[in-house]
Amino acid sequence: MAAACIWVIQSAALGLFLSFLLWLLALIVALALSQHVVHPVAAVVLSDRKLDQGIDALASLARSAGDLAQGLGAPPWDQVRQTVSRFAAGFAHK
């Protein structure tokens, strides 16, 4: 009877130890994969280039809208275009 109890306790301890080793191995693999998967994705998502491209597109749209309005005989949009360009340039330099 005592031998059976000792065997059960040792089996449980071995199972607990092996599950800890498996968890530790999974953690190390997850960290290694995150270096190759998560960090590049985060770098792309948080890139300043995307923000700069968006600001350039907004400034280009403002210039095009001003040119179109002047071509249609509307009053000059130079002040509006300059204001939007300055606003966009302020974000580009931050």
What does this structure look like?
By secondary structure, the protein is mainly α. It has 2 domains: about 1-45; about 45-94. Helices cover about 85% and strands about 0% of the residues. The chain contains 4 helices and no strands. The protein has helices at about 1-35, 40-45, 50-70, 80-90. Helix 3 packs antiparallel against helix 4. The longest helix has about 35 residues, at about 1-35. The model has no long low-confidence stretch (mean pLDDT about 80).
Topology of this protein?
Blueprint: H1 2-36, H2 38-45, H3 48-71, H4 78-92
Structure described in brief:
The protein has four helices and no strands.
Features:
about 90 residues; mainly alpha; about 85% helix
Question: How many helix segments?
Answer: 4
How many structural domains does the protein architecture include?
Answer: 2
Compute the average pLDDT: 79
Rg calculated over all Cα atoms: 31 Å
Give the uncertain stretches in residue-range form.
none
- The coarse silhouette is rod-shaped
In what range is the share of β-strand residues?
under 5%
Major beta-sheet overview: none
Report the oligomer.
single chain
Helix content: over 70%
Number of strand segments: 0
Q: Structural class from helices and strands? A: mainly alpha
Please give the alpha-carbon distance between the first and last residues.
Answer: 75 Å
- The sequence of SSEs as H and E is HHHH
